[in-house]
Amino acid sequence: MNKTSKLLIVLLSTVTALNAQAVDEAQLKKIYDAALTQGKAYDWLNYLSNQIGGRLSGSIQAQRAVDYTKMQMDSLNLDRVWLQPVMVPKWVRGTAEFAYFELTPGVTTNVPICALGGSVATPSKGIKANVIEVQGIEELAGLGKESIEGKIVFFNRPMDATVINTFSAYSGCVDQRYSGAAEAAKYGALGVIVRSMNLRLDDYPHTGSMGYGDLPVNERIPAAAISTNAAELLSASLKLNSDIKFYFKQNCRQFDDVESYNVIGEIKGSEHPEEIIVIGGHLDSWDLGDGSHDDGAGCVQSMEVLHLLKKTGYKPKRTIRAVLFMNEENGLRGGNEYAQKANAKNEKHIFALESDSGGFSPRGFSFDCSQRDLNQVKSWAKLFEPYYIHLFVEGYAGADINPLKSEGMVLAGLRPDSQRYFDHHHAENDTFEHINKRELELGAAAMTSLVYLFDKYGIPGE
After folding, report:
1. Does the active-site annotation cover 441?
2. How many domains is the chain partitioned into structurally?
């Protein structure tokens, strides 16, 4: 091949690449314009939050959310919409919890408190005992049974304020919430109270899942979270008077599993229908607020991806499937069931994207994939620059899509600005009034744009 021919090939390749970039820029612009002017996500979330409310697995509200989201996906004229049955746990909070600590007999201070999800109840008259404060599970062994037996263990390790990635700060202390009761029970504790997983000082107790491992039912002790302000006050008071007594009462109960559903809608691929791209969030939430950020936002954004692809006239090459998973909060049953059914059918999933970090301004995506695939994603970065999406990093994708993970597949998680997320996470103030319409829509547009690019170009080597 002579030099002229080589030069022509280079020029043609350059022109082709520039034309492809122009087409992609135009499609992303159409997606963002449609999301910001014709989107449905905010109205869908308004209904989920304000007409249905908190959607704890196994509850009537969770079933109403299944019915509503299926109806809305039916209205999008997708190629297929269906319900995937899954058995889920049914835990009920019961009447409102109550707590106080007693400085001296008759002198009490009420404390904002909530039972942790999965906890057993206190005795009908509640529990009242001395308190022993610890910074983590590892301190229990050093204290020993003689120091813990007959007391209430107070886990007071805060989220690390110096960690900019708030999800990392959360991971650094959430073990005391999940496993604290099981560990404290081994040393004869009567119950545990846990500082809420929240960087802000406020009066909202934050619930969340906890487990007892293989501890026999008759040895399980009640577990509850107190607000960060209450934790600060209790800790300061204990330093002045170590003989403080703490009282709390809760009436929660675990029932037998019940049937619920993942809600699924899809657009069939025009060229490679056997290759599946999944976007999703979890439809269940805790019961204290209405689950707007965790994870109503992720659900409506996932539905919006399908809506925006149709609205912009884009016909996917591959099958695009939105999955609203049930029971992420206290069991991950929906994510596991979806993956098991997909594997049983030998379905070929090439890309999965999850939104479960709130409806705040999108900053980018984290990817669980090979370096080769990550390099491809980074080659698209300039397309996202006009929309202030700059984060394309290796990292965790999401709990519900993680069971799908297989060799050669790309998993991704939408990464919004996380600094306010844990102000609301699992608390009474996770409500619709804290959703910004434009931020929610920008997140849906970013997800749709990434789905478009994976659909158009696939993954290297597939």
Report:
1. no
2. 2
